[in-house]
């Protein structure tokens, strides 16, 4: 039986959530996708705070930078500061192509930075590329 991979999608845009989920669910790889709609919820899940005490940590995190409550930048910094979480690869998938956002994301430990493309096919292609790389080629801890 094929391995089940777990992904945490931290995204507040319902359209991007649906598109990412649909693309990943159409994969040949078995992926369980959990969605956090803001940075606060993502950190609660990752820290296994109530009501997420039984949350299974993900193999990969898709992280938008522009989130309500706690920004994606703060979430990324927190993930990479915690020993239990820092080995989880974080793919920043955001609308920002600002050089400062890119540099700061890598400075605090992003494993990959991708700008969300405009258009359905381009977006699906990016998500499939991430999926193929992280769930097929890379050996995850």
From TrEMBL:
Which BP terms from GO are recorded? phosphorelay signal transduction system
Keywords, A to Z, come to: Phosphoprotein
- Coiled-coil region(s) at which residues? none
Which intervals hold domain Response regulatory? 6-131
Q: Which InterPro entries match?
A: CheY-like_superfamily, Sig_transdc_resp-reg_receiver, TCS_response_regulator
User: Short name of one Pfam family for this protein?
Assistant: Response_reg
Q: Which residues carry this modification: 4-aspartylphosphate?
A: 64
Name of the featured protein: Response regulator
**Originating species:** Duganella lactea
């Amino acid at each position: 039986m094929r391995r089940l991979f777990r992904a945490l999608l931290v995204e507040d845009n319902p359209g991007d959530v649906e598109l990412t989920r649909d693309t990943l669910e159409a994969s040949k790889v078995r992926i369980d996708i959990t969605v956090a709609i803001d940075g606060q919820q993502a950190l609660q899940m990752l820290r296994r705070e109530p009501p997420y005490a039984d949350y299974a940590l993900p193999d990969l995190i898709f992280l938008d930078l522009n989130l309500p409550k706690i920004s994606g930048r703060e979430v990324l910094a927190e993930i990479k500061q915690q020993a239990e979480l820092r080995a989880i690869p974080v793919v920043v998938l955001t609308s920002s192509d600002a050089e400062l956002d890119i540099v700061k994301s890598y400075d605090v430990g992003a494993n990959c930075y991708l700008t969300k493309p405009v258009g359905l096919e381009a977006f699906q292609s990016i998500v499939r590329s991430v999926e193929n790389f992280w769930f097929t080629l890379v050996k995850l801890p």
